Amino acid sequence: MKNTLKLIFFVLLLFALFVSLRMFIDVAFYSDVIGIKDVSILGIISILFTVSAFLIGCVIFLENRHPSKTLTWLIVLGIFPVFGFFAYLLFGQNFRRKRMFQKKALLDEQAFLQYKGHEDYEERMLRNHKHQELLFRLADRLGALNISFQTETRTLTNGDETFQAILDGLKRAKHHIHMEYYIVRDDKLGTEIKDILIQKSKEGVVIRFLYDAVGSFRLSNSYIEELNDAGVEMIPFFPVRFPILNDKINYRNHRKIVVIDGNEGFVGGLNIGDEYLGKDKYFGFWRDTHLYLRGEAVQSLQLIFLQDWFYMTGEAVLAPEYLQAKAVEGDHWGGVQLIAGGPDNKWETIKHLYFAMISSARKSIWIATPYFIPDDDILSALKVAALAGIDVRLLMPSKPDKRTVFYASRSYFPELLDAGVKIYEYEKGFLHSKVVIVDSDLASIGTANMDMRSFHLNFEVNAFLYDTDSIRKLVQDFKDDLEESSEIHVDRFHKRRLHRRIVESTYRLLSPLL
């Protein structure tokens, strides 16, 4: 309580100081720039923005956010009232979030319960994977769909392998194709996919395509119109016309889903674009991980897509022919479970499952992620695991695609290294995989990065694997990636230049907002 009062007093003092400071700056420097000579008008404008920033600060307190995010927003609003005011309107609002997603959450829950099986999957899971019982029960409580022991899985480790499999699958389609992507490019790969979809539509295949309106903002209207004219239903997810007035811009659909005839599916880290085939000169080879599924678990992937489709279009597509995935015979496949995470969830689903995976480890925790901005829970869990002698390894890219996130990620390295976490930087090209492997018999592949945006804001989807052959392939892939990487040594990293430390620390301060 005492610390809370101190923080409130500090924030109030900070705002009081900057009210006068901002008034002085506005009057002294900005009058010529904005063309207002009347000092009283400038003073009123300055006070209005500062008071607005103060009121937003009060709202942030009342929303009971994560302490680090709360403090970051308050600092931004205190130092830059005008900028902070608009930045918060654009990126920081939480007060409309519950109302915005309340209907979707209810519909999702109803649909998931309707198709939640009552077979002996739980008994089998607890019988064959007793040591993972707590994780399984957590996933079940968080809204995970049925675990399947009759689904074939195959990992795909680069763009060429992944898109060859996807293109072949699209060509096999007889009844329907469902696709959902964050980024779609109008380039060679995008055109190849478009041509196949147009051809399949002519053959009578029903095609539904969701694309994120912000992630795919460069996608040409002609690309979309050509598909729509051919009978493909291509719909944007959360279109944003007035960004500053529309808080939907902050909640993006980061999922990458392909479902073919309800029995084959793909999920993972690869968007649609030539750079994901390694054709970008800066990135070079693009190292990513996708998962191919055939069998029961595809029904779960299908349901996630159909719920998103209904949310955007109002069209309920729950006919039996869409939700009758065929079981793959055999007892050697292991378990597969699909998890949907997003701002519409009551809980931070994927983050909680990552935390549970890390906490359940007895031997090893291997993580590959392009972005590493954990919250305090995940960061502490990793450090505690390493201090307890568990083999904790973090694999990240050696070059940035987003400099702010890259340097913010590196700001976490010193404390991880001091705790005994081994950190590697991938040097063959750009690493974009989102993979977690625990004890070589539990893994996650999907769209969620190890960062706060994936935990709190984005719509994500991950496949959790229990003792499958695909996990053994993931382990070998991780070892192969380490051969193409350099290890960061704690002594050398602590000696990095001062300006680099300053940059990292600055972005670390803003990391809850990235």
The gyration radius over C-alpha positions equals: 24 Å
Tell me the strand percentage band. 15-25%
How many discrete structural domains?
Answer: 3
Task: Say which CATH homologous superfamily of the largest domain is assigned.
Answer: Endonuclease Chain A
**Through-space gap between termini:** 29 Å
Report the strand count.
18
Q: Ranges with pLDDT <50 over ≥5 residues?
A: none
Shape by Cα distribution = globular
Helix content: 40-55%
Give the integer mean of the pLDDT values: 83
In CATH, the architecture of the largest domain is 2-Layer Sandwich
What is the fold named in CATH at topology level of the largest domain?
Endonuclease, Chain A
Family: Belongs to the phospholipase D family. Cardiolipin synthase subfamily.
GO molecular function: cardiolipin synthase activity
Transmembrane segments: 40-62, 71-91
Protein name: Cardiolipin synthase
Key words describing this protein structure:
single chain, 514 residues, Endonuclease, Chain A, 3 domains, eight-stranded mixed sheet, 19 helices, 48% helix, 19% strand
How would you sum up this structure, described in words?
The radius of gyration is 24 Å and the shape is globular. It has 19 helices and 18 strands. Strands 1, 2, 3, 4, 5, 6, 7 and 13 form an eight-stranded mixed β-sheet that branches. It has an eight-stranded mixed β-sheet with strand order 8-17-15-14-9-11-12-18, with helices on both faces. It has a two-stranded parallel ribbon with strand order 10-16. It starts with a helix and ends with a helix. The protein folds into three domains: 2-92, no CATH class; 98-127 and 150-332, Endonuclease Chain A (Endonuclease, Chain A, 2-Layer Sandwich), CATH 3.30.870; 349-513, Endonuclease, Chain A (2-Layer Sandwich). Helix 3 runs antiparallel to helix 4 (81-92). With 514 residues, it is an alpha/beta fold. The mean pLDDT is 83. The longest helix is centred in the N-terminal third of the chain and has 33 residues, at 2-34. InterPro entries: Cardiolipin_synth_Firmi, Cardiolipin_synthase, CLS_N, PLD-like_dom, PLipase_D/transphosphatidylase. Keywords: Cell membrane, Lipid biosynthesis, Lipid metabolism, Membrane, Phospholipid biosynthesis, Phospholipid metabolism, Repeat, Transferase, Transmembrane, Transmembrane helix. The chain crosses the membrane at residues 40-62, 71-91. This is Cardiolipin synthase. It catalyses: 2 a 1,2-diacyl-sn-glycero-3-phospho-(1'-sn-glycerol) = a cardiolipin + glycerol.
